[in-house]
Amino acid sequence: MTEKVKAAILYKPGEIRIEEVDKPRIRADEILIRVKAVGVCGSDVHYYKRGRIGPYMVESPLILGHECSGIVEEIGSEVRHLAVGERVAIEPGVPCRRCQFCKAGRYNLCRDVVFMATPPVNGAFTEYVATAADFVYRLPVDMTCAEGALIEPLAVGMHAARRGGVSAGSRVAALGSGTIGLMTIAAAEAHGATEIYAVDLAPNRLALAAKIGATETINAADADAVEAILELTHGEGVDIVFETAGAVETVKQTFDVVKRGGTVVWVGLPAQETVPLKVAHIIDEELTIQTVFRYANVYPDAIRLVASGRLDLKPLITHEFPLEQTGEALRFADEQKEMAVKVMVVL
Ligand SMILES: [Zn+2]
Ligand SMILES: [Zn+2]
Questions:
Q1: Which ligand is nearest to the CA of 110?
Q2: pLDDT at position 57, please?
Q3: Which strands make up the sheet holding 216-219, listed edge to edge?
Q4: CA distance 153 to 295
Q5: Is 298 helix (H, G, I), strand (E, B) or coil?
Q6: Most exposed: 4, 58, 147, 254, by fewest CB within 10 Å?
């Protein structure tokens, strides 16, 4: 008889049931992990509420959750780099490793990626997951599993900082200070940015932004963010601006706060498909536009960065729920956006 384990399963929008599923079995090149911490991501909340994101539809019961860490329970016969009992972070997207994008190192663009909690692939709101061993990374002894789960959103921030070309002395702005905005701020600081302007509407998120590396915070509810950034940079604008709010208004603002010849990095996903842009202005200023889709080749560096103590991500974890309350955790993350930054399911 197959051993059973608990999982939080999304049946339809708004309905998560805690049920028993078969304990996953591993292949020779896989690892079985006892899940310890799973962050609630905006995409999980979206699937929970609407049952779809763009073309990805939840058509059969699905386990959400992709920001995860845990303890190695069992290793496949071919696995050499990890041992039972070690704590690990799991990179949730496993690409094909054979296509031109994988070969070029840009495996986040692989068309055959298998990504946790993207229908029909199950995620990590469950007691055990099995995954490819080469996408599992050991956590140093002094890192917690909760911090391990935060490596996933940090990887997005690191990828954004790299795509934007942040370097020593850079002036940057982050339009939006939700989890991804905060991770981008932290990553920009780690990459050497010395002026970091954080914009948001929620005071608690701005307070966290200041804690994690922002040198100035601007509440867009009280001040014109564009004017404030221009004033802080003596009318020049920043070298690199990150759009992390996923709002049409902030997408447009990126061009108003970046300096001539600067770089705009779009990380957030606006709800509407098209956004009108001032093309002549973009050409005249010779701006560079970069985009960020997930990340690639970032996990080991992100883990070392956190382990070094240079980055303290723990204040981002604002709320914790047990696996049995995964539905509550998703609802809380959705309804308490002002209060909740990173909601974590802990096992
Ligand atoms: Zn995520
Ligand atoms: Zn590929």
A1: 2
A2: 87
A3: 216-219, 195-200, 171-175, 238-243, 258-266, 288-291
A4: 10
A5: coil
A6: 4
Q: For tokens 């799973």, what's the residue?
A: 38
- Indicate if the pLDDT at residue 55 is higher than 90: no
pTM for the full predicted model: 0.96
For the beta sheet containing 62-63, the strands, ordered from the edge strand earlier in sequence to the opposite edge, are 15-22, 4-12, 62-63
pLDDT at 243 over 80: yes
**Which helix (H) or strand (E) is 88 found in, with range?**
strand 87-90
Q: Tell me which residue of 3, 7, 27 sits closest to 116, measured CA to CA.
A: 7
Ligand closest to 102 (CA) is: 2
Q: Which two tokens stand for residue 170?
A: 């850079």
Q: What is the DSSP letter of 215?
A: S
Residues 126, 5 contacting (CB under 8 angstroms): yes
CA angle 105, 120, 110 (to 5 degrees): 15
For residues 160-186, average pLDDT:
97
Structure tokens at 229: 């950034």
Give the residue among 96, 49, 56, 90 at the shortest CA–CA distance from 71.
90
Give the tens place of pLDDT for each residue, 259-279.
Answer: 999 999 999 998 888 999 999
User: Which pLDDT tens digit goes with each residue over 272-307?
Assistant: 889 999 999 999 999 999 999 999 999 999 999 999
| Contact of 240 with 263, CB cutoff 8 Å | yes
> What is the Å distance from ligand 1's center to 180 Cα?
9
Give the distance (Å) from ligand 2 centre to CA of residue 94.
9
DSSP string, 28-40: TTEEEEEEEEEEP
Q: At what angle do helices 299-307 and 151-164 cross, to 10 degrees?
A: 110
What's the gap in Å between 113 CA and the centre of ligand 1? 15
| Assigned token pair, 51 | 């049952």
**Tokens of residue 167, six digits:** 């370097």
Neighbours of ion ligand 1 (CB under 5 A): 41
